[in-house]
Design goal:
- The protein has 306 residues and is an alpha/beta fold.
- The chain is 37% helix and 14% strand.
- A five-stranded parallel sheet has the order 7-6-5-8-9, covered by helices on one side. The chain has a four-stranded parallel sheet with strand order 2-1-3-4, with helices on both faces.
- Strand 1 (40-45), helix 2 (51-62) and strand 2 form a beta-alpha-beta unit.
- Helix 2 (51-62) packs across helix 10 (282-305) and helix 5 packs across helix 6.
- The chain starts with 11 loop residues before the first helix and ends with a helix.
- The mean pLDDT is 97.
- Bound molecules: N-carbamoyl-L-aspartate.
- The site of N-carbamoyl-L-aspartate has 11 residues, from helix 2 and helix 6.
């Protein structure tokens, strides 16, 4: 059974194929409107979500399928003490494919070991978020026309930001990628990712606390929210939450064709004045996420047949 836990579960060739499939869906959605007829997607969300859950659900409806699930742990039997393993075995009796978000790193993996249908990690703690990466890759492809030879700046909470971890894992496998890591000292990218991904794959990177000094170098600026729910104490969160606020004047030295991304939700990191800048791509990411989730559901259900 094929699952998606980590973006590296998909080869670069498969990523490119999923992007091509999403582009075909965008060009001719009617062709796919019955592709998942009588199939059911279960969305098991033990943590808050707007985009990820609803884009999975919209994706399944647009493929002609249907959706069941829950959007908070307290409305499921997890509140009575049921294990993730038993939940996965149970849902496998009702649904053809599962998307799971959980605050504990590795919980979707436990589900995948116990489910008899494909399981998709829709975000596990501060670890990974591979389907946001699919949305991000399609956005970069559509904005830049390529996924190689780019200087990509990641700014904000690089320690707990699971979307950052997964996107770095994906981009490190493309040619000519340079990474710029911009964060407060306390929220640096975990050293295991620097060692096992960036250094291991020979991806050049720099670390800084100063966004403006690196702005002119960037082709892509990926802003992130400080992940309040992962902090051990509120004081640290309050001190760090406004470390970076992107305002129009900070873009004066940026490239004319910079692409500004953010997985959303935004708190304070990007001023709303930037939304009308043609370089802002964060609401395009939202839409691209639905198309990539359609492509992923199609692929995993097709492979599950075999
Ligand atoms: C992200 C997540 O859940 O990790 N949101 C999303 O899925 N688009 C980013 C975040 O919560 O900051």
């Amino acid at each position: 059974m094929r699952h998606l836990m980590d973006i590296t579960d998909l080869s670069v060739q498969e990523l490119d194929e999923l992007i091509a499939l999403a582009e075909d869906i965008i060009a001719d959605p009617e062709k796919y409107q019955d592709a998942c007829k009588r199939k059911k997607l279960a969305t098991l969300f033990f943590e808050p979500s707007t985009r990820t859950r609803l884009s999975f659900e919209a994706a399944m409806y647009e493929l002609g399928g249907s959706v069941l699930g829950f959007s908070e742990a307290k409305s499921s039997s997890a509140a009575k003490g049921e294990s993730v393993a038993d939940t996965a075995k149970t849902i496998s009796c009702y649904a053809d494919i599962i998307a799971m978000r959980h605050p504990k790193e590795g919980a979707p993996y436990v589900a995948s070991l116990n489910a008899s249908v494909p399981v998709i990690n829709a975000g596990d703690g501060g670890h990974n978020h591979p389907t946001q990466t699919l949305a991000d890759l399609l956005t970069i492809k559509r904005e830049k026309g390529r996924l190689d030879n780019l200087t990509v700046g990641f700014c904000g909470d690089l320690k707990f930001g699971r979307t950052v971890h997964s996107l770095i894992d994906a981009l490190a496998r493309y040619e000519g990628i340079k990474v710029v890591l911009i964060s407060p000292a306390e929220l640096k990218l975990p050293s295991y990712i620097k060692k096992d991904v960036l250094k291991a794959q020979g991806v050049p990177y720099v670390q800084t606390t100063d966004l403006e000094s690196v702005m002119p170098d960037l082709d892509i600026l990926y802003m992130t929210r400080v992940q309040r729910e992962r902090f051990f104490n509120e004081e640290d969160y309050l001190r760090l939450k406004d470390s970076y606020i992107l305002e129009p004047k900070k873009l004066l030295s940026a490239k004319d064709d910079l692409t500004i991304m953010h997985p959303l939700p935004r708190v304070n990191e990007i001023s709303v004045a930037i939304d009308k800048d043609p370089r802002a791509a964060y609401f395009k990411q939202v839409l691209n996420g639905k198309y990539m989730r359609m492509a992923l559901i199609l692929k995993l259900l097709e492979e599950a047949k075999n």
